[in-house]
Design goal:
The complex is a heterodimer of chains A (242) and B (281). Chain A has 242 residues and is mostly helical. In chain A, 80% of the residues lie in helices and 0% in strands. Chain A contains twelve helices and no strands. Chain B has a domain at 56-222: Orthogonal Bundle (MetI-like fold), CATH 1.10.3720.10. The chains are: A mainly alpha (242), B mainly alpha (281). The interface between A and B is large, with 88 and 93 residues.
Chain lengths: 242, 281
């Protein structure tokens, strides 16, 4: 009889569990499930054929292409630097490590609008490099390079943030074993480290990708809203809505 | 200490170069640009009537949204970790939705949901509650946007609570409520505060989702990022720079706060042990 008693002492009474579960689920229902349902209901408002027709619109197709291009372009940078940062932070001890982590987190905390603005100030017509860029006929702001740069900025922390706790928890034993058995650095990385972190890496990449494709504020500032040229999908949504 | 593992110089070097080029240099560019303003000029712009109203809306609404998320996020995280129910994995993955949904889509969707003829708005409208195109709408949008932060910060911490602690409290005669407030909550609290601060800092900077649901009336429902944009669109680069600098400074402070919190939580975990040892001595 002592076990059920202990159970009861260690768990909430049934009514409270139901109340909490109900409250939590109701909150998620109103704030997540309903909006999600509304997205699909709005999209398919005129039926499938109207939906497909809207997708075939030239500018929409262009916006989809541009969004995918930027996301794919940013991907290798995120993977390379995310893994490098996580490797340095998780496997080694050095001074200023917590400062480095704070700096990596910075893009999470800075408002996307401010990010866009910063690059406008640097590469824009009156910006720091503005005259040099226009003298060499290079367009960064209101063009693809600017949009890629802000997307790189915005998505920088995701992979590293996902990998650091994972690699810290895994410790260095397996890698040290590989090295002491004679593996080269890259052999160790591809045979030991990468298989260990692949799911975390994938999750980080997915999050970064979702952010890259969905980013609105920062891209909106540096894109200049040129239809059929610098219009990504989230920006095109705004135009269609208005 | 001799390092056995290779690649320290390479990985740290790459990280530092990339970080400096992409993040530190641009941000210091903003500070540099601001320094061309005189202090009185900067102060005039940063404390103008419209700017002050925008701060008030931004911070008030973000604080409210982050608080809502702190309360309900704690409940959701607790339920997701502790109680079994059908469809739990689906619900769990749904929590990441605000990370994945483009903010402009989120804003438009919430605006249609809460508009007078929307699914939710049509029930609130007869009660005299207007959500879309009012500051209340901003609360809804920001709650949506920052929802995952509290839940995702708390989940691993609640999972890590060792059952022995609760059992000990229960055998020593604590009621369930006492166990929660005296034993569990102190352990969860740093993570809760971290999640709250993360949600708050995300909410302050949010732009995409808010502009569709806020109505954007100057002095009433205009947020600071929107004010920056509208200054930029009027080619008032100086004004936009000053406001951006204020926002950037606030982001720095909040971020340092989060890191200090995590450091505090970590050192308190160890400090607690020492404290107990000292008592037993």
């Amino acid at each position: 009889m002592s076990v059920p008693n202990l159970r009861r002492a260690n768990a909430e009474p049934r009514w409270l569990r139901w109340l909490l579960t109900g409250t939590g689920l109701a909150f998620l229902f109103f704030f997540l499930a309903l909006p999600l349902a509304a997205v699909f209901s709005e999209a398919l408002n005129g039926g499938w054929s109207a939906y497909l027709l809207a997708l075939k619109d030239h500018e929409t197709l262009y916006a989809i292409g541009l969004t995918l291009f930027i996301a794919l372009f940013v991907l290798p940078f995120n993977i390379a630097f995310g893994v490098a940062a996580a490797w340095a932070i998780a496997k080694f001890d050095f001074r200023g490590k917590s400062l480095l982590i704070t700096l990596i987190d910075l893009p999470f905390a800075v408002s996307p609008v401010v990010v866009g603005m910063v690059f406008l100030l640097i590469f824009g017509a009156q910006g720091l490099f503005g005259s040099w860029l226009s003298a060499h006929d290079i367009k960064v702001v209101f063009a693809l390079p600017g949009m890629i740069i802000v997307t790189l900025f915005i998505t920088f922390p995701f992979v590293a943030r996902e990998l650091i706790p994972l690699m810290q928890a895994q410790g260095r034993d397996e890698e040290e074993a590989a090295i002491s058995l004679g593996a080269t650095g890259w052999q160790m990385f591809f045979r030991v480290t990468l298989p260990n972190i692949k799911w975390g890496l994938l999750y980080g990449v997915i999050l970064a990708n979702a952010r890259a494709m969905g980013e609105f504020g920062a891209v909106s500032v540096v894109s200049g809203h040129i239809r059929g040229e610098t219009n990504t999908l989230p920006l095109h949504v705004e135009i269609l809505y208005n | 200490m001799k390092r056995v593992l290779p690649g320290f110089g390479l990985s740290l070097g790459c990280t530092l170069i990339y970080l400096s080029l992409l993040i530190l240099l641009p941000l210091s560019g903003l500070a540099f640009k601001t320094s061309s303003l005189s202090l009185t000029q900067f102060w005039d712009i940063a404390s103008g009537e419209r700017a002050l109203a925008a701060y008030r809306v931004t911070f008030g609404v973000s604080l409210l949204a982050a608080s809502i998320n702190a309360v309900f996020g704690l409940i959701v995280a607790w339920v997701l970790v502790r109680y079994p129910f059908p469809g739990k994995r689906l619900v769990d993955s749904l929590v990441d939705l605000p990370f994945a949904l483009p903010t402009s889509v989120a804003g438009i969707t919430l605006a249609t949901l809460y508009a007078g003829n929307g699914w939710i708005g049509r029930y609130l409208d007869p009660l005299g509650i207007k959500v879309a195109f009012t500051p209340l709408g901003i609360v809804v949008a920001l709650t949506f946007i920052s929802l995952p932060f509290v839940v995702r910060t708390l989940q691993p911490v609640i999972e890590d609570i060792e059952p022995e602690i609760e059992e000990a409290a229960a055998t020593l005669g604590a009621s369930r409520l006492q166990t929660f407030t005296r034993v569990l909550l102190p352990g969860i609290f740093p993570a809760l505060l971290t999640g709250f601060t993360l949600a708050f800092s995300r909410a302050i900077g949010e732009y995409g989702s808010v502009i569709f649901i806020a109505g954007n009336m100057p002095l009433i429902s205009e947020i600071t990022p929107l004010l920056i944009i509208s200054k930029l669109e009027q080619y008032d680069v100086v004004g936009a720079t000053a406001l951006a600098c204020v926002m950037l400074a606030i982001s720095f402070v909040l971020l340092l706060g989060v890191n200090a919190l995590q450091w505090w939580a970590a050192s308190r975990g160890q400090g607690g042990h020492h404290g107990r040892q000292r008592v037993s001595l």
